Amino acid sequence: MKVAFVASEVVPFAKTGGLADVAGSLPKEISNLGHDVKVFMPKYYSVDEYKFDLKYLDTVGEMQIRVGGIPRPVHVQKGFLPDSNTEVYFIDYSFHFHRHQIYTNDHDEDERFILFSKAVIELFQRLGWAPDIVNCNDWQTGLIPYYLKENYSWDRMFDKTASVFTIHNIGYQGRFSKETLDNGEIDHKYFYPGGPVEFHDSVSFLKTGIEFSELINTVSETYAAELLTHEYSAGMHDVLLSRENDFLGILNGVDYSIWNPKTDKYLPHHYDENDLSGKLLNKKFLLQHVGLPFDENKPLIGIISRLAIQKGFDIISAAIDDLMELDAQWVILGSGEPKYEHLFRSMAYMHPNQTAVYIGYNNELAHLIEAGADILLMPSHYEPCGLNQIYSLKYGTVPVVRKTGGLADTVHDWNEFNELGLDTGNGYSFYEYSGAALINSVKRAINDFKNKPVWKKIQTNGMAKDYSWKRSAEKYVDMYKHAIEKRRV
Ligand code: ADP
Questions:
Q1: Is pLDDT above 90 for 153?
Q2: Is the four-CA dihedral 86, 87, 93, 94 of positive or negative sign?
Q3: Is residue 160 one of the residues assigned to a domain?
Q4: Distance 361 CA to ligand 1 centre (A)
Q5: What is the C-alpha separation between 182 and 196, in angstroms, rounded?
Q6: Does residue 25 lie within any of the structural domains?
């Protein structure tokens, strides 16, 4: 099977969130299953072409890609996903992609991704490579399924090409004014109230992707179910309900070559489920590193997150005084909304022996917290998949989460399962989105932490679980096969 994986960010070249992690791992796993996978992304200013040894594709040369009626000269560079033969093609047009950020609020944001989408299709033509599947990801790629069925349908090489559209976060919908129709050469006949490219009087690239793809998926089963509801869909539930039979959830995997306490290159002490002694040493190291006193019997609660409301920081704020009264220590790593940065800075100032806060992005510290903390707190309002809680499970760091999206699919409440006579729980979860429910769960965790055999059972339940990409990649391949069948009928 020939698979084009198209994404606006791919690890290690450019990243703002979980999409980049998926795009950097999943294509490799699908290749390992014996398929021909190529990755396509924009060549941003921040992509280091020397470090990654990218080469211009002279065989392709300059492509003239029309946006808003004007042809734009586009070049293509090629590299590989690290430690693999998976090719990555970079669409290079500096006027659009050499900006300070990957995503902008500039007036031509629509044109940037119109150009990208068309260039990817014209590159398929130049390469003479007809994909069986184009796996598009998020709104930036939402026009590709449309273009394949409309603007480029004259080209018989795409007769059998099926599109799959993967939603990583419904909150970003790529909505633009009606002028975008002309910029993108999108047929006005599709723009009417409720029409396939129209969403509340705007052109939505996300909706277009959903409407013109053979199949649609998202990154966990629970998030897929939630997206069919008013509460979680940011208005898209009717659109998705109309495609309900073609919509599924596949949980993301994680990369255990990077996130494994047995081999993690950032940890001073390695450990696994058979011998957790290294975890305690990491806790000691971490506490010293962040300037907090070590107390083996006091649970250390970690937070590693974008400081955004999506991640539950409003209920943490609501509960902050009560949380500080608990007999626990805190280490918090994150950056984002200034009000939450301020909240945590003042928390550290007022409770210097109890709380350490690092505002910023720090990958090494993220690894140290995963290993050194006893509990990871992730009370998200919504969470399409979530990676940190999956890392935590592997690191024997017991997650306390809100039961939503991928958190609900990976964290199983200890008490709930215990009451059922099963000792398979691996964390704590609560449903009601409130400070009170959050505190209740944190208290339950702190309480069980004192009971060493119980705590060890919860930790090892989590560590035994395998969330590597292989299983998810097999599900993607099944989905692709199904999409190809649908395209043929
Ligand atoms: P999202 O993609 O919504 O931000 P995920 O849990 O899916 O949330 O992925 C977050 C990723 O970013 C994880 O790999 C996490 O370790 C990392 N991360 C988040 N904030 C920071 C930070 N401040 N410093 C280092 N790594 C971070």
A1: yes
A2: positive
A3: yes
A4: 9
A5: 16
A6: yes
